[in-house]
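Lab notebook, bench 4. We co-purified these components, and the gel suggests they stay together. Before we commit to crystallization screens, I want a quick structural picture of the whole thing.
Request: model the full complex, all chains together.
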Amino acid sequence: GESVGLHLPTLSVQEGDNSIINCAYSNSASDYFIWYKQESGKGPQFIIDIRSNMDKRQGQRVTVLLNKTVKHLSLQIAATQPGDSAVYFCAESYNQGGKLIFGQGTELSVKP
Amino acid sequence: NAGVTQTPKFQVLKTGQSMTLQCAQDMNHNSMYWYRQDPGMGLRLIYYSASEGTTDKGEVPNGYNVSRLNKREFSLRLESAAPSQTSVYFCASRWTGSETQYFGPGTRLLVL
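Here is the predicted assembly.
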């Protein structure tokens, strides 16, 4: 049978549209969340983070929303550009131990 | 600042051979991490070093050893490589006052 995790969820959007990438996290005790962008052949790059005492945080063209009730995190990218095409990972941390638990990732494809 | 650097960029090994992956950071970070990334999956923690002189196992430590040579450098050693260790290896570092980890460009390892 097919192993879990071999096929990334994919989101395809038109250039200029807004993108929403979702993530379900596992530990209700997690107190820090972070989004990374990984372009092909490169290491993960920090995009934005949020602590559990916040529901929303905005950056440049990006917004992260946190819903602790349902353990859900989302990344919104405004006016998506071809350069946004990449795999996006969410990660969680708890106890401030510095260890991150990564999600599977979502591949974002932007059509010109 | 170069950030986090890794060598080599790519390596091919035969089963049973050994090698050391090198990582260095110039950001004066205290904590350093080694992850592996397999196709279609997120990053899994192999080993980490919370501070100079300490190392701890992560989620998938079997078959690996690490050395925190000094504050800047953290190496990962495969004593007897196996095909299951074919992966992309990422090193990351973190300043104690933040939970954000910064990643290197990765080492692509193929074990035949």
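The first strand of chain B starts at residue 4 and ends at 7. Worth comparing against the SEC data before the next meeting. The radius of gyration of chain B is 13 Å.
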